[in-house]
Amino acid sequence: MRILRAGDCKRMPWKNGGGETVEIAVSPENAGLAGFDWRVSMATVATDGPFSIFPGIDRTLAILDGNGMVLDIEGSTPVLLTTASDPLAFPADIPVAARLQDGAITDLNVMTRRDGLAHRLVRIDVDGSSTLPLPPSTCLFLCHGGALSFRRGGETGALADGDALLIEDAAAIALEVDGEAKCYLASITTG
Questions:
Q1: CA-based max dimension of the chain
Q2: What is the top-level taxon of the source organism (predicted)?
């Protein structure tokens, strides 16, 4: 397990140059936008516009802050995403345009290379003590809008707003958490 502190995350321009992203974790470590196997990042979207195209990549998006945005995904009915919405999965290699509802938003992106990996992103609201089952995969647990402490096996630690816990080979062991926060669990599997 490794704690990834919010202040240590790498900031970089979007692939299409339209904004900035905060890279939480990437594999292989230090991979660029063309060479990652999987990537978890946050971005602030301040204007309407197209998403970057990532050939061979699947993406899941969740809204962390703001009043939401409508995604126009080629071949699909437009979808309104808000902080209350479930994360939305879609291919990252088809045209997608975003229209903001009312002001800037911050989103969470999970992306995996389709030819060998798959992912799942779920929102978990922590209020008190909980035991979270972990899938047997690589997991990234993001703490957003709160703080919590965690235990897994003999390891313990704490996450503040924006911090993440990276668990490589979770081996289906549960994570015990205490605190109050909106959290997201990304699981990355070979497939």
A1: 48
A2: Bacteria
- Domain range 118-190, CATH architecture: Sandwich (2.60)
Whole-angstrom Cα distance, residue 118 to residue 188? Answer: 6
Describe the chain by its helix, strand, coil percentages, rounded to 5: 0, 60, 40
**pTM, 2 dp:** 0.92
CATH 2.60.120.10 intervals, the chain:
9-115, 118-190
Q: Is there a contact between 171 and 163 (Cβ–Cβ < 8 Å)?
A: no
At residue 96's C-alpha, the angle toward residues 45 and 47, to 5°, is 25
What CATH superfamily is the domain 9-115? Jelly Rolls (2.60.120.10)
3-state DSSP assignment of residue 6: helix
Are 73 and 90 contacting, i.e. CB atoms less than 8 angstroms apart? yes
Instruction: Provide the 3-class DSSP secondary structure of residue 19.
Output: coil
Mean pLDDT of all residues in 19-25: 87
Among 108, 134, 120, 112, CA closest to 26: 112
CA distance 45 to 40: 16
Q: Give the H/E segment covering residue 144.
A: strand 138-152
Stretch 58-74: mean pLDDT, rounded? 97
The pLDDT value recorded for residue 87 is 98
Residue 153, token pair as written in the block: 């096996």
